[in-house]
Design a protein that fits this description.
- The protein is α+β, with helices and mostly antiparallel strands.
- It folds into three domains: about 190 residues, Heat Shock Protein 90; about 130 residues, Ribosomal Protein S5, domain 2 (2-Layer Sandwich); about 240 residues, formyl-coa transferase, domain 3.
- Helix content is about 30%, strand content about 25%.
- The chain has 17 helices and 29 strands.
- The strands form eight sheets. Strands 5-4-3-6-2-1-7-8 form an eight-stranded mixed β-sheet, with helices on one face.
- The N and C termini lie far apart (about 80 Å).
- The relative contact order is 0.09.
């Protein structure tokens, strides 16, 4: 095979794939160009999730007419002049690849007017080729319109997600840029509907409130700027959430270095180490960290999208972040929990029928209302809970439960089982005839809930109608993806309604036995559904059903009372397909008597004098 130099148009499309992955990549490059141009106001308009049209308008310095064609030539830039400039990069862009890469896979129109100029110039391109130039009237600054993204690379186009998901990616990206540049006013609109708007007043806490809600902003602890004693110019500042306000993942940790949003696990690890002793296991803080690092200690040219950086002295940076976080958390008095902050309190719970839960000396049970809907009313605590351990979440049978029907075909039950106990607070130890069973309590309960969430069961009128609807506040960039999920969640028995800019009201929960749910639990469920795509060959409906079951099931390392374990075992034995969880993981491991005797080197079941010992 003969080696040939690629056609320039093919080479441009290949190179574009390194920089432009989706509509959010386009927005990132255009907004960073606007910030480098000194913009104080940036407006982003989206159509069709960014696949149909992306428009970015700024009030920056603008470009002269003769510079517009140069801006679309690869490696043409105003930000580098000599090789040594790579060692002191202070701009967000510097390679001169963004505009050529965007133009290679879309149709682009750019209009720009430098400050003080009498008129603006407009340039149109298609597939990277200039198709028109003209002089027009326009405000000072630059407007870039990108249409029909990946129109000439259908292989890339087919891998883009739905419009709401792509819009969610754009919103998430802009969230980071807003937190990195609170001095700039941002507006994001989709299909003429405003999604994000910030004041651009330079107040980081105001930006946090605009994006994550006032509830989050109210619990943020300031990090006063802390400078390294060893390296002048190395400093950290920002905001971190009070320890009671935590999240199930690291996705609410934003690290910003010299105005650039990056993911650096050394910095995140230092932040988490600073919270050591303050957070529950597998919970993570909300944090916005601004690091100022001298350019000679930083390499930003290690990732095509500049999303990663490399430190020359990571030890100094890690120590600086750790000490700043630790000092802020130990500073007396630590900000107390606001009285109105109930969206993520662990004691705001939504009980599930058939499994009462403790709160003080009352157990809240379901009773039919006149309307036929179920409501929550307090009852005296049943005696069966008298010896239960002090765990918060309980799964015990209701004293008013009807007698269970015979096990359906395909259920796990074979012969009467006897509960022996719980091992490692994760596995039920059960004797069934001459078998010893180890049942994974999470996998077993997950299957029970999964089977109850078929639409014809979960969406019945006897779903739990909450007497006090539960309000949850979500990040702004989740709003559209969550709206897309509403019909599927409704099929599972959830009644969820938009409430304001970034809040939702939960009015009903599915009628299925499960652990009590807090607003934080439901937040974690939505987070996984928004961020994760279905597995190959899996429908979105099936993904939602599996995810709901997983989140509502009891967890490993969760102590259960004898009554709770008996209830779980009984339900599991009556559930079809109970030997595996919905994700295909085994829910039970069995040991036959013969296996055990062989392991203990017993010679046989009869006639062996050692067998009686």
């Amino acid at each position: 095979m003969t080696i040939k130099i690629l056609d320039p148009r093919i080479a441009e499309k290949i190179a574009a794939g390194e920089v432009i992955e989706n509509p959010a990549s386009v927005v990132k490059e255009l907004v960073e160009n606007s910030l480098d141009a000194g913009a104080t106001r940036i407006e982003i308009r989206i159509e069709g999730g960014g696949k149909k049209r992306i428009t970015v308008i700024d009030d920056g310095f603008g470009m002269a007419p003769e510079e517009l064609p140069l801006a679309f030539q690869r490696f043409a830039t105003s930000k580098l002049a000599v090789l040594d400039d790579l060692n002191r990069i202070i701009t967000l862009g510097f390679r001169g690849e963004a505009l050529p890469s965007i133009a290679a896979v879309s149709r682009v129109t750019i209009t720009s007017r430098p400050r003080g100029a009498l008129a603006a110039a407009r340039l149109s391109l298609e597939g990277g080729q200039i198709t028109a130039r003209e002089e027009i009237g326009a405000p000072e600054g630059t407007a870039v319109e990108v249409r029909d993204l990946f129109y000439n690379t259908p292989g890339r186009l087919k891998f883009l997600r739905s419009d709401p998901v792509e819009l969610g990616r754009i919103s998430a990206l802009l969230t980071g840029l807003v937190l990195a540049h609170p001095e700039t006013a941002f507006i994001l609109a989709s299909e003429s509907k405003q999604i994000i708007q910030t004041a651009g007043d330079g107040n980081l806490l105001h930006a946090i409130g605009a994006l994550y809600g006032h509830e989050c902003a109210a619990v943020m602890i300031p990090l006063p700027e802390r400078e390294s004693e060893q390296v002048p110019g190395l400093a950290v500042t920002g905001f971190i959430a009070a320890p009671h306000y935590h999240r199930p993942s690291r996705k609410h940790i934003t690290t910003i270095i010299n105005g650039r949003v990056v993911r650096n696990f050394q910095v995140i690890a230092a932040l988490e180490r600073g919270y050591s002793g303050f957070l529950p296991r597998q919970r993570y803080p909300v944090a916005v960290l601004h690091l100022r690092i001298p350019p000679h200690l930083l390499d930003v040219n290690v990732h095509p999208a500049k999303a990663e950086v490399r430190f020359a002295r990571p030890d100094l940076i890690v120590e600086l972040v750790y000490k700043a976080v630790r000092a802020a958390l130990h500073k007396p008095p630590l900000q107390s929990r606001p009285a109105g902050n109930r969206a993520f309190e662990d004691d705001v719970r939504v009980p599930m029928p058939g499994f009462p839960w403790r709160k003080g000396r009352q157990v809240y049970m379901l009773e039919p209302a006149d309307s036929g809907a179920a409501v929550l009313t307090p009852q005296a605590e049943p005696e069966t809970f008298a010896e239960a351990p002090p765990a918060e979440d309980h799964l015990a049978p209701s004293t008013s439960c009807a007698e269970a029907p015979p096990p359906p075909a395909g259920a796990a039950a074979i012969s009467p089982s006897r509960l022996i106990g719980q091992f490692l607070q994760s596995y039920l130890v059960v004797q069934r005839g001459e078998e010893l069973l180890l049942i994974d309590q999470h996998a077993a309960h997950e299957r029970i809930i999964y089977e109850s969430l078929v639409p014809e069961k979960a969406s019945r009128s006897d779903a739990i109608q909450l007497t006090v609807p539960l309000e949850i506040e979500l990040p702004l960039h989740w709003r559209e993806p969550v709206k897309e999920l509403l019909p599927l969640l409704s099929e599972m028995g959830y009644k969820l309604e938009p409430f304001g800019d970034n809040s939702f009201i939960i009015r009903a929960m599915p009628f299925a036995s499960g652990a009590p749910q807090t607003a934080a639990d439901f937040y974690a469920l939505l987070e996984e559904l928004v961020e994760a795509a279905p597995a190959p060959g899996e429908s979105r409906r099936e993904q939602v059903r599996k995810t709901v079951a997983c989140h509502r099931a009891v967890k490993a390392h969760q102590p259960l009372s004898t009554a709770e374990m008996e209830a779980l075992l009984k339900s599991w034995e009556e559930t079809p397909g109970a030997t595996y969880c919905p994700h295909g993981r085994p829910a039970v491991i069995s040991f036959q008597r013969e296996e055990l005797e062989k392991g203990f080197r017993r010679e046989g079941r009869t006639g062996n004098k050692h067998e009686r010992r």
